[in-house]
UniProtKB/TrEMBL annotation:
It is found in: Membrane. It is a multi-pass membrane protein. Keywords: Membrane, Transmembrane, Transmembrane helix. It holds the Pfam family Na_sulph_symp. The chain crosses the membrane at residues 41-73, 80-99, 126-150, 170-195, 215-241, 262-279, 285-303, 315-334, 346-370, 382-399, 405-426, 446-466. The keyword Transmembrane applies. This is Anion permease. Its main location: membrane.
Length: 472
């Protein structure tokens, strides 16, 4: 009986969502404010979203199909397809995959895996050590997808120690979730932070310094990371069955072997990469170019770590094509004015409720930021689209622009609804060797999204307020 009710509720929700999408499509078609190109892009985007979330078609196939449809309907130029592969994030992803393979092939990921496995007596320990390993990564790798790609070989190695398929799924979900939740630790945690900061200064606001962001962002990231860890332990307690046997326990503190030449090479290249990533604001070399230089160095014949062929085979081309096409689709949404039309509607609605106290308006804006990944899939695009409007709205409502930009960027870092909501999630969802279940992600999202929102509100009126982050 419960199963029938669940299926009935699920069917009703599907029909309800289809009615909403159909109603929105009718509004789009009848709107006088939208051009033909904007109408087509919006409808194609809705169709794409349905196929991404409601079917098992490869996300890359759907994304490329959406671009081809736009071009066929004369709503975009043919160059859109070709230029979609020329963005920085594409080359950063390719480089990150190759670097991740170099990290694994050199044996360093095996060392890290051994360190975790030797000290972990059960799965809960493995997740906790991974949490500790992931927290500092946001300081040195300025890309969520880069961090996900770097950690993938380690996750694969650890998963081989687990006998349960269910535990492997949980492990594959835990890592990208923590990567995304800890993005707010530092100003370098995501490119959207830098974009938002630049837009803030360009519109007359005061930039958020690296130190201030660290003071405000790090405690929040640690807190939400620990909360997520606890939720995973409670929610999946029955599935976490791994226990180390007695024989392994006796030998778990074996003496570490000295570093091999190949490992020393990899450490040297990674160290140089980290320094270049962190000092990007000084030398002005793009992060994508730096990442590709590191990947190129790792594949250097005779002196490198991996072969050219092995490096290319490590790249998830399905994900690359998805990111390229989805980014191009997002660009069309912006350039045709489609997103601006939606954005105006949302912020005009906020203006109507200007009588609401400042705290209520801030809560609404935080909610918009947290849910923005549902209609703007690219993290960077979300910042480019929403931050200028948030700054202008802050000035008109006499709110502190710096505070609103920081809160909005923290809110935008939440993107855990669907596998396509983040490239970090897609990397693990598309991996046949160690992938998570999309239903588990949806369930975790239902728990984590309200907690994330409430934690931001609590921090706003306690710690952030005490450390100088004021609303007005």
């Amino acid at each position: 009986m419960n199963t029938k009710r669940f299926n009935g509720t699920k069917s009703f929700l599907k029909r309800f969502m289809m009615m909403l999408l159909f109603s929105f499509s009718v509004i789009v078609v009848l709107s006088d404010e939208l051009t033909y190109d904007a109408k087509v892009v919006l409808i194609v985007f809705l169709l794409t979203l349905i196929l991404w979330t409601g079917t098992r078609l490869p996300v890359g196939y759907v994304a490329i199909g959406s671009l081809l449809l736009l071009i066929f309907l004369n709503a975009a130029e043919q160059e859109l397809l070709y230029t979609s592969l020329s963005t920085e994030i594409i080359w950063m992803l390719i480089g990150a995959y190759i670097i991740g393979e170099g990290f694994r092939s050199s044996g360093l990921s095996g060392r890290m895996t051994s360190f975790i496995i030797e000290r972990a007596n059960h799965t809960q320990h493995i997740l906790f050590y991974l949490l500790l390993a992931l927290l500092p990564l946001s300081f040195i790798i300025p890309s969520t997808s880069g961090r996900a790609a770097i950690m993938q070989p380690i996750v694969k190695d650890i998963s081989q120690q687990l006998n349960s398929v269910r535990e492997k799924e949980i492990l594959a979900l835990f890592v990208p979730v923590i990567i995304l939740l800890t993005t707010s630790s530092t100003l370098l945690g995501a490119g959207s932070h830098l974009i938002g900061n630049e837009l803030l200064e360009a519109n007359g606001g005061e930039r958020i310094s690296y130190i201030n962001w660290l003071i405000w962002g790090l405690p929040f990231s640690i807190t939400i990371g620990l909360v997520a860890f606890i939720i995973f332990i409670i929610f999946f307690s029955r599935a976490l069955i791994y226990r180390k046997n007695k024989t392994t326990r006796i030998n778990k503190r074996s003496n570490p072997q000295p570093l091999m030449t190949i490992e020393k090479k990899t450490i040297t290249i990674l160290t140089i990469l980290i320094v270049l990533w962190v000092t990007e604001s000084y030398h002005q070399v793009d992060l994508g170019l730096i990442t590709m230089l590191g990947a190129f160095a790792l594949m250097t014949p005779k002196y490198g770590v991996i072969s050219w062929k092995k490096g290319l085979q490590s790249v998830s081309w399905n994900l690359i094509l998805f990111v390229a096409s989805a980014t191009a689709l997002g660009k069309q949404l912006v350039e045709t004015g489609a997103v601006h039309w939606i954005e105006n509607g949302v912020f005009q609605l906020l203006q109507i409720f200007s009588f609401i106290p400042d705290g209520g308006l801030v809560a609404i804006m935080i909610l918009i930021a947290i849910t923005s990944h549902l209609y703007i899939t690219s993290h960077t695009t979300r910042a480019v689209i929403l931050i200028p409007s948030i700054i202008m709205l802050s000035y008109s409502l006499q709110l502190e622009a710096q505070t609103m930009v920081f809160l909005s960027l923290i809110g935008m870092n939440y993107c855990l609804t669907f596998p396509v909501s983040s490239k970090a999630l897609l990397i693990y969802f598309e991996d046949e060797g160690c992938r998570y279940n999309a239903k588990d992600l949806s369930k975790m999202n239902l728990i984590l999204m309200p907690i994330y929102f409430l934690l931001m509100i609590i921090f706003l009126y306690t710690y952030w307020h005490w450390t100088g982050l004021t609303i007005s």
